[in-house]
Write a structure and sequence with these properties.
The chain has 301 residues and is an alpha/beta fold. Helices cover 48% and strands 12% of the residues. The chain has an eight-stranded parallel β-barrel with strand order 1-2-3-4-5-6-7-8, surrounded by six helices. Helix 3 (86-99) runs parallel beside helix 4 (116-129), helix 9 packs antiparallel against helix 10 (232-250) and helix 11 (255-268) packs across helix 12 (285-297).
Length: 301
């Protein structure tokens, strides 16, 4: 890592704040982007953590605009463009780049189960319709499909396809991604499973995309700094600490439940409300009280 790439380090998949009526809470969004920017962490809006599929298109556009305005060039801003309607994904990509996003992040449409050739054709179509940089997002947990590495390799030959966010929770996949793409100067690889962060960095990944960065930005900043310094003992120490923090909202919960709990943890820090959009369900008062106590015990509140 003697040569620092444009796309590297910690990219936080930002939780999206909403009002009690389900609209984007613009003031809270600005506060959340500002905290990430202060910690020099990349801002990834409209990912899985950000409830992107549930957000109206107009609010998605506004969130990207806020992120770009508040980040003000201090950190990179990424916008998720996942949709089951491919023309809508392309339209969002164009709008987000026009608004100043540094890159967009494309997830497969998931209503239909696609074979490898269909995945490649779809993502090629999206990339060719996108006027700026694009990262591929592999997340079988939500799409039900794993993008083959041969497909990703061919897509990486397109001039504007600059990286991969891989959220497939498999050590075999991690090793294969690192072997295939690690060390390439023209293509960045990000680990989307935060518990695998230190292992991914050791194997040559360029960065990590941790949802716990929403509630603990400083330790993730410090972990990335330790990677750059080659202090692997500190990296492992911080990874253990961050795994403990992540368990506060993840342990014993499904993905939708963990997203609601994460939003509640951010709310406990005073940054936003615990409101989520359907089909997610916000934590009730009793669960919120328990979560706040857990967060307080770990110094998060």
């Amino acid at each position: 890592m003697s040569i620092l790439k444009q796309h590297r380090g910690v990219m936080v998949p930002m939780s999206t704040p909403f009002t009690s009526t389900g609209r984007l809470d613009e003031a809270a969004a600005a506060r959340m982007v500002e905290r990430l920017a202060i910690h020099r962490l990349g801002v990834f809006v409209l990912g899985t953590t950000g409830e992107a599929p549930s957000i109206p298109v107009a609010d998605r556009q506004r969130l990207v605009e806020i992120a770009v305005q508040v980040a003000a060039g201090r950190v990179l801003v990424y916008g998720g463009i996942g949709s089951d309607c491919v023309p809508d994904s392309i339209s969002m990509a164009r709008d987000y780049h026009r608004a100043g996003a540094d890159a967009v992040v494309a997830v497969l449409p998931s209503y239909y189960q696609l074979n490898a050739a269909e995945m490649e054709a779809c993502l090629t179509h999206i990339a060719r319709g996108t006027p700026g940089q694009l990262l591929i997002y592999n997340i079988p947990l939500t799409t039900g499909m794993s993008i083959p590495l041969d497909v990703i390799d061919r897509l990486s030959a397109l001039a504007n396809v600059v990286g991969l966010k891989d959220s497939e929770n498999s050590l075999e996949r991690l090793e294969s991604v690192a072997e295939r793409f690690g060390g390439r100067l023209d293509f960045s690889i990000f680990m989307g499973v935060s518990a695998n962060g230190s292992r991914a960095y050791r194997r040559g990944f360029d960065g990590v995309v941790p949802s716990s960065g929403n509630i603990a930005p400083a330790p993730w900043r410090d972990l990335d700094a330790a990677v750059l310094a080659g202090d692997w003992g500190q990296v492992e120490t911080l990874q253990i600490q961050l795994d403990t923090l992540g368990a506060v909202f993840q342990q014993g919960r499904s993905l939708p439940q963990s997203l609601s709990a994460l939003k509640a943890a951010v709310a406990a820090q005073g940054l936003c409300s615990r409101a989520v959009l359907p089909p997610l369900v916000a934590l009730d008062d009793a669960a919120f009280s328990d979560l706040k106590q857990a967060c307080a015990s770990l110094g998060l509140v």
